[in-house]
């Protein structure tokens, strides 16, 4: 009499649960990476209803007391152009994001725009969405 066991051990491994976990981790990292702000300076930006999708390489910030920052490092205005040239020397298309407090005079913003124009950098003026 041939007796057979009803419970057979399966040697196959199902990857569907592992794929679900990896997909959820991917979504989590995509959402959290978009929440990171490029600068830690507290600036009141002007409002605009037009937004651009270009990715800036460098962020230049001007505070209300006319202090200049590249990313989060303070830079005197006299050294701003040379530091930008050093930072963007090997970039074929350099995008600069300009974060200027809305209380900063237009003259200071135009000075940074002139630096970008003289060095053929593309400049993005950062704004907040209109409410």
Describe the protein.
With 131 residues, the protein is an alpha/beta fold. The chain has a domain at 47-129: Nucleotidyltransferase, domain 5. It is 33% helix and 19% strand. It has helices at 16-34, 77-87, 106-118; strands at 47-48, 58-62, 68-70, 73-75, 95-100, 122-125, 128-129. The strands form two sheets. It has a five-stranded mixed beta sheet with strand order 4-3-2-5-6, covered by helices on one side. The longest helix is centred in the N-terminal third of the chain and has 19 residues, at 16-34. The chain is elongated and about 95 Å long. The chain starts with 15 loop residues before the first helix and ends with a strand. The mean pLDDT is 80.
Radius of gyration: 26 Å
The pLDDT mean sits at 80
Q: How would you sum up the major sheet?
A: 5 strands, mixed
Assembly category: single chain
> Beta-strand percentage?
15-25%
Work out the number of β strands: 7
Report the total helices. 3
The CATH class of the domain at 47-129, by name, is Alpha Beta
Might you state the CATH topology name of the domain at 47-129? Nucleotidyltransferase, domain 5
Gap between N and C termini: 82 Å
| Helix percentage | 25-40%
Q: Could you write a compact summary of the structure shown?
A:
By secondary structure, the chain is α/β, with parallel strands linked by helices. It has a domain at 47-129: Nucleotidyltransferase, domain 5.
